[in-house]
């Protein structure tokens, strides 16, 4: 029986400082922040377009669709970088923060992570869709309230499985590993509390980042800095997941 939790303050501290020690930290942070800034500008630009203009001007509609596709591609691309950093951390690869020039590798990793997330959210989305359809077909609005507890349980379960799958994924960046339900179930049965604490820590960091973002919104310069803070937070989260993975798989005898 384990008496010590996997997560410690040292782990949290390390997740915030590992990137700063990297040789090209500033350059990599700037590139990541600029990419986030571009996606943010694209998304805000799309919101400003009037719906009536879209209906009456096909050319603008095409431009908006292109912007949407670019935004999606950029978000997938950016999401791959922190995961590669986590993978490098686990394998002691130097530098932990690689150059952004490996476009295909970063994009492929982000695409794999996106596929994994979608696969784990399918049960939740399917159940919500079925609940809504049954409610409409039977014309019983109260039925959706009765099904709400079931939906919540499925969503939470899917969330825990997806989160654990991503932690396993960063070891070898393999979709197959992330879909090893047997391994994930064993780990969750033994480390559910630790995983829950990790999620709480990440939620706390997200709230802190949100507060920083709110304060930065006071000035125009501060607003420009928000994407860079957001990207840095993704590096922190990925490293926390890598440390969690490292501690779990040094205890193979407990998982077997």
Describe what this molecule looks like in 3D.
- The chain is mainly α.
- The chain starts with 8 loop residues before the first helix and ends with a helix.
- Helix 2 (25-48) packs across helix 9 (220-248), helix 6 packs across helix 8 (181-216) and helix 6 (143-172) crosses helix 9.
- The protein has 10 helices and no strands.
| First-to-last CA distance | 14 Å
What integer is the average pLDDT? Answer: 88
How do the helices and strands follow one another from N- to C-terminus?
Answer: HHHHHHHHHH
Query: Residue ranges: pLDDT <50 for 5 or more in a row?
Result: none
Rg, Å, rounded: 21 Å
Share of helical residues: over 70%
> What is the global morphology?
globular
Query: Which class do the helix and strand fractions yield?
Result: mainly alpha
The major β-sheet equals: none
- How many helices? The count is 10
Strand content: under 5%
Number of extended strands:
0
């Amino acid at each position: 029986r384990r008496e010590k939790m996997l997560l410690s303050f040292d782990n949290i501290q390390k997740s915030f400082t590992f990137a700063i020690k990297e040789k090209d930290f500033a350059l990599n942070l700037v590139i990541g922040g600029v990419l986030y800034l571009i996606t943010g500008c694209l998304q805000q630009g799309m919101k400003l377009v009037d719906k009536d203009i879209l209906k009456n001007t096909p050319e603008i509609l095409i431009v908006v669709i292109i912007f949407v596709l670019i935004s999606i591609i950029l978000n997938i691309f950016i999401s791959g970088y922190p995961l590669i950093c986590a993978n490098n951390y686990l394998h002691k690869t130097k530098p932990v923060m690689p150059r952004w020039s490996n476009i295909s590798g970063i994009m492929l990793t982000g695409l794999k992570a996106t596929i994994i997330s979608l696969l784990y959210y399918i049960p939740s989305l399917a159940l919500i869709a079925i609940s809504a359809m049954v409610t409409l077909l039977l014309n019983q609005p109260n039925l959706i309230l009765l099904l709400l507890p079931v939906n919540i349980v499925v969503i939470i379960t899917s969330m825990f499985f997806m989160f654990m799958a991503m932690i396993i994924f960063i070891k070898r960046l393999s979709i197959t590993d992330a879909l090893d339900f047997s391994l994930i179930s064993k780990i969750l049965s033994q480390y559910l509390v630790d995983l829950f604490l990790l999620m709480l820590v990440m939620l706390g960091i997200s709230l802190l980042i949100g507060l920083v973002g709110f304060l930065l919104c006071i000035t125009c310069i501060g607003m420009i800095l928000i994407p860079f803070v957001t990207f840095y937070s993704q590096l922190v989260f990925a490293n926390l997941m890598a440390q969690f993975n490292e501690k779990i798989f040094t205890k193979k005898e407990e998982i077997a």
